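Design job #97: recover the sequence.
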């Protein structure tokens, strides 16, 4: 068989496997607006800016937020089959728990920065991106040698409020933590 014939068969099989009824209303709307943007000759950058404007944020506007977070013990799953039998995990329930304060800044391009100076997070730095409605960032140490909590931050941006969670671990993974936070526009 020649390669073109096999490639054509794969395309037909892929398209035949997809049903229009499996698309959600959001998928159909996104597909329609993407097609309209392509037909109008707009660039991806201007489409992204338009999406941010529709989501209730103004493109090109920097915002600063301050808020509080609460850290609780997290959990980690270790499979019980024989390949994992030697792995033991005991989450130290006595340290890096409690409440603290954090700051978040979103610049005009959607770049996220900020951090914490005290509390269970200690001196931490936030670095990520926001599209106007969602925010994703990494949580890293200002001083990597302090062996504090690091991880990821996920949040929703709604007007003048950011609400989300952080999944965190100590540098040696002996401590796993989960945090919820809320920040309001300054």
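Job complete. Output follows.
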């Amino acid at each position: 068989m020649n390669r073109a014939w096999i490639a054509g068969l794969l395309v037909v099989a892929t398209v035949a496997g997809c049903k229009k009824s499996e698309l959600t209303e959001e998928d159909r709307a996104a597909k329609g607006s993407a097609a309209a943007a392509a037909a109008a000759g707009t660039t991806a950058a201007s489409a992204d800016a338009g999406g941010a404007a529709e989501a209730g944020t103004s493109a090109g506007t920097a915002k600063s937020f301050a808020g509080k977070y609460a850290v609780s013990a997290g959990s980690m799953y270790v499979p019980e089959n024989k390949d994992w039998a030697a792995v033991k995990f005991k989450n130290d329930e006595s340290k890096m728990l409690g409440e603290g304060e954090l700051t978040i800044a979103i610049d005009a391009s959607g770049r996220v920065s900020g951090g914490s100076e005290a509390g269970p997070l200690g001196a931490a730095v936030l670095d990520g991106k926001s599209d106007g409605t969602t925010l994703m960032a990494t949580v890293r140490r200002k001083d990597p040698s302090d062996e504090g909590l690091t991880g990821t931050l996920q949040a929703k941006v709604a007007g003048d409020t950011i609400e989300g969670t952080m999944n965190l671990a100590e540098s040696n993974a002996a401590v796993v933590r989960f945090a919820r936070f809320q920040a309001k526009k300054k």
